[in-house]
């Protein structure tokens, strides 16, 4: 069995003091299956009148995937969607050729705890039409000491409602008591496990909150030891066959696609549209590649 890779997420600043820990991408690992971005936000307590406010920004060639644990966040996008996401729910936004959105804590928000992920789209869907879906009801069941919530894909005979385009899985594990949980894995998948609260032990190795464990494909089973109230996010998928380029909020399959998206965003190209009522538009930093 291959050893477990231990990845320490880096701190990232979303602006206005909103600090997150970024488990993907890192130097060590760019992706887990099609999952190409994983931010752990909070838990954070806001001062009155505070909260998270992310101005209008574009995405391409990816799906943004929000798993909310605490708080309430209003999503608005250039398709005209307005949706409040609450704990236990998933928002899935498919960017395809282009979409713009804003994310704001509700005015009386005092706390936030969430995982924000991106799923890279395969080349044949890079320019697909944008879409947004809200999933308030997810498959939930108990296994051993844990309450399981299936966020994406299929697991243990359950299937989540989110529309995804490559073989992958997302699972939330919440330990109601100390104990051991054995999970059947797909040997064709690679996996990443991130304790969002508490800690976990895999193969006798201890992982504290925000220590990301990466497992290469080839495992058929995983045994986790969890202490009471620990919460672990498991993501997995078939290793993504095509190289993915990421810059700012853009994903693409080559630098040309990213450079074009950035020029189009700066020029107000209609491929992105506008979020009704949005007052703040985020500016992309200059492309990091000479000649583009
Ligand atoms: Mn976004």
Question: How does this structure look, described?
Answer:
With 292 residues, this protein is mostly beta strands. The protein is 4% helix and 49% strand. The protein has one helix spanning 255-266, and strands at residues 5-7, 10-13, 19-24, 35-45, 53-59, 62-70, 73-77, 82-85, 90-94, 99-105, 111-120, 131-135, 140-143, 146-152, 154-155, 158-159, 168-175, 179-184, 190-197, 200-202, 205-207, 212-215, 221-226, 231-237, 245-247, 250-252. The strands form 6 sheets. A 7-stranded antiparallel sheet has the order 1-22-19-24-17-14-13, with no helix packed on it. Strands 2-3-4-11-6-9-12 form a 7-stranded antiparallel sheet, with no helix packed on it. It has a 4-stranded antiparallel sheet with strand order 5-10-7-8, with no helix packed on it. It binds manganese (II) ion (MN). Manganese (II) ion (MN) is lined by residues 57, 59, 64, 101, 249. Manganese (II) ion binds at residues 57, 59, 64, 101, 249.
């Amino acid at each position: 069995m291959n050893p477990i890779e231990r990845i320490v997420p880096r701190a990232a600043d979303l602006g206005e003091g909103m600090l997150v820990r970024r488990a993907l991408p890192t130097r060590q690992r760019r992706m887990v299956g099609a999952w190409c971005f994983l931010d752990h936000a909070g838990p954070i307590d806001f001062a009155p009148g505070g909260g998270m406010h992310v101005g209008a920004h574009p995405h391409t060639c990816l799906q943004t995937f929000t798993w909310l644990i605490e708080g309430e966040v209003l999503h608005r996008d250039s398709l005209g969607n307005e949706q409040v996401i609450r704990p236990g729910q998933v928002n899935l936004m498919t960017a395809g050729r282009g979409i713009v959105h804003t994310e704001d804590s509700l005015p009386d928000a005092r706390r936030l705890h969430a995982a924000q992920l991106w799923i890279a789209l395969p080349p044949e869907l890079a320019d697909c039409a944008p879409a947004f879906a809200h999933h308030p009801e997810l498959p939930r069941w108990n296994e051993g000491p844990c309450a399981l919530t299936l966020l994406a894909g299929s697991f243990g005979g359950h299937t989540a409602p989110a529309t995804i385009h490559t073989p992958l899985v997302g699972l939330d594990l919440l330990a109601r008591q100390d104990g051991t949980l054995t999970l059947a894995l797909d040997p064709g998948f690679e996996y990443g496990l991130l304790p969002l609260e508490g800690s976990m032990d895999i193969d006798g190795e201890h992982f504290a909150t925000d220590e990301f464990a990466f497992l290469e494909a080839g495992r058929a089973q995983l045994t986790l030891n969890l202490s009471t109230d620990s919460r672990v996010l498991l993501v997995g998928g078939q290793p993504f066959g095509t190289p993915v380029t990421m810059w700012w909020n853009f994903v693409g399959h080559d630098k040309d696609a990213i450079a074009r998206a950035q020029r189009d965003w700066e020029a107000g190209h209609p491929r992105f549209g506008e979020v009704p009522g949005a007052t703040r538009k985020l500016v992309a930093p200059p492309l990091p590649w000479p000649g583009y």
